Task: structure prediction
Amino acid sequence: MSYQIVVCGSIVPDPLQTLEPVSGPTGPSLKNEMMLPSVLDPWAWHALFEAAHLAKNVAGSKVYLVSVAPKAKLQQVMMTVGQKAPFELIVVDGPSSGFTDAAEIAPLLAEAIKGIPGLDMSKLLVFGGWESASRGAGSTMQIVGELLGITNQFQGVDKLTVGADGSFEILERIEGGKHQVSKCAGAPVVLGWATGSLPEPPNNPQIGMQNMRAIMPALQKAKPAKVATDAVKYASVALPKQQRQTKIVKDLPADEIAKEIVAWING
Amino acid sequence: MDVDIVCVGFGPATAGFLTTLSRQLPLPDGTLPQVICYERADDIGFGVSGVVTRARGIKASFPDLDPTQIPMCAPVAEEKVLYLLDPHGASRRSLTLRAADALLKPVAKHHAFELPYIPPYLQKHGGFVMSIGQFNSWVGAQLMGTGTVQIWPSTPVAQPLIEDSKVTGVRLVDQGENPGMDIRAALTVVGDGPVDPVGRQLDEKFGMPEGHHKHDYAVGMKFVVNLPEGCPLKPGTVLHTLGYPEPEIFGFLYVYPDNVASLGIFVPSWFDSPVRTAYRYLQHWMLHPYLWRYLNGGTLRSWGAKTLGESGKRGEPHLAGNGYARIGEGSGSTNVLTGSGVDEAWTTGTQLAHAVLELLKYKKPFTKENLEATYVKRRRESWVEQEGRVAERARDGFHAGMVTGMLGMALAGATNGKINLPVETRPAGGHTPSLGEYYRDRIPADEIEKIRKECAAKGVSAHNELMNRVGWPAIPFDSKLLVSHQDALLMGGKVQAPAGYADHVVFLYPNLCERCGTHICVEVCSGQAITPGEKGVPAFDREKCIHCGACMWNCATPHPEDSSRTVLEFGAAPGGLHSAEN
Result:
């Protein structure tokens, strides 16, 4: 048994950047977005590692990375991602600001997946970030699955174990910091990954060299996506009133961290 | 892994090299050499700097260059050079300067005197102010778009591979679970900048040309700032300052479009202070009355620091050897008279590219002889070389003091380098006085020792307490532009360090560090990554390092086996600044 593992991955500004929403003629966007360095969405980033790990261990499997993003920014992100794991890139040149309706993005992803030559639904695993491409709506992967006719869907996934019979055991995050264990017969499935359990792979220049031969042509032939800008109407956009406060402290006991958080909440 | 050409570092020089080379690929015979570039920073626009440049070389590569196509770029519109007086009386000024200050005070406005004349060699009319981070991103995107070359950020190079005096490629930095991979290439292009961790290893192996050395450096620390609403500074404005916060510290302010400015200071190696920290001085510089009237109400967008190689032509290494060539700042291309480096670096890259294309065309190997006949020959015949020779000794005078240095520059500029002051230069860290010597007229020795011990016990550098003690006022933090050093790392630099890599700063001889009287590495560290450690050996935290490299050349203890080195080893590593606006 081999798999066709499709990872849906959007790009986001490097999480440490200072983001500021602004309103423009086509709706809200992020100030200076094209100047901010971008990364693959952190959830999709983990999904890609999980996909690469699974493909490495199941002979004949292949990983595809399907992304809706401005291709110039995606090209920049590929310089970081491309050395991490072998994959074939499929690009849809579209927005990635996070203000686009998930129902607009999901059909683009689904159509791109359907267009993969030799697509075999019996081998298809659709991976993605739990909240990718919708910045918190958590609905993109579900819609992609529905459009592909995949009913076995799991969200907030932290672990996938393939049984000897090809069945899957999946750990999904549920309330209270616990996991729900589910089983299904096998492909096709949709898995919206949380953080998984794998560390970031080291850079592998050989993989980079091999990937890049296909990445540039994929970027060059990417077609602009038609996305309705009026699908969602935003009454207003603003920074949250409560800003994150960050400091770097090493080796602080958990009790001390908890006390500081409580004091911060109270104070 | 085997490739045809491997490049170390993606700065302006390599950008110029790859831009010129890629335009001629595939070659006329249809072959496409494999060209790969490894950059240590986590993106190709991170960890560089803002600049004002005449852009002669850049314009030659892009004759139709439209600055509006590059974010944070504007044509130079107005230039001023300002002598800043000290409004607090806290800086260390010679009697000559005090006399000059007294003369200028009645005519100064906002404690600053605008120089009525800017020498032609310092003028940048016709050029641009721009963010090299954004420029590099712009060039890099075009390069990758060609599909003929590959650029891989977050991939530092550990060392050159040398076999029988021939460079055969590079070894990448060990990532913990992987040994560093060897990348073998017919040509290794070394453009790893002023800190040049790979270039330095070539210098150790092959030596420097007779009479050449790298004695002069500076650390440039800067902010990118959203100027306050209504700020009258127009895009393209260029301000250069001297005289304050210490006479030896120079400042700059470049105005980009959309009410954004890049501003900062240069702290040179010849500033004989054991506490030549940049961050605290940068804040005092911003608060100078002349500048603060423009900056008050502004907000920090980005922050960073980098080393500048200020030896210029005198620091030129062997430009080519069997299997390798050196380009850019680390190859001595910076012009220390005109204060210009980016355009020169870019141009050396284009020169090497033309040479490589010529050798590929005639199927000649990348030997020392062939590279000298093509690349070095082009460089020697170019304006980079001619102007570099004029500038070669222009800054020597600074080793004898600020006033002598300014006089030396004026002489060199006025005589096209024919007359220079006969001043002997010294290695960067080799003339650092002790704290006691530096503050001998201002703080009693026992009090200095007490401050030093108290700061060491707290694990912090001593410069803040010492500067407070000699009269520098407290910084009025406003959480917007005047922020703590650690906040600058988080808010401006967004500093990161990926897991799995070893420390890239190593104290080679802990016993010598124990006996060090200055620990200037702690005082100068741009990210507060080096702190007082146990038994007097400094501690290094790579998660705070911004890779400016200042610790390496500031170290005051020479290596016991090689006096051209210090006992602080600085290698290439990923991470550091995560802002592309610098």
Q: What stands out?
A: The mean pLDDT of chain B is 93. Residues 342-361 of chain B form the longest helix (20 residues). The first strand of chain B starts at residue 2 and ends at 8. The two ends of chain B are 33 Å apart (CA to CA).
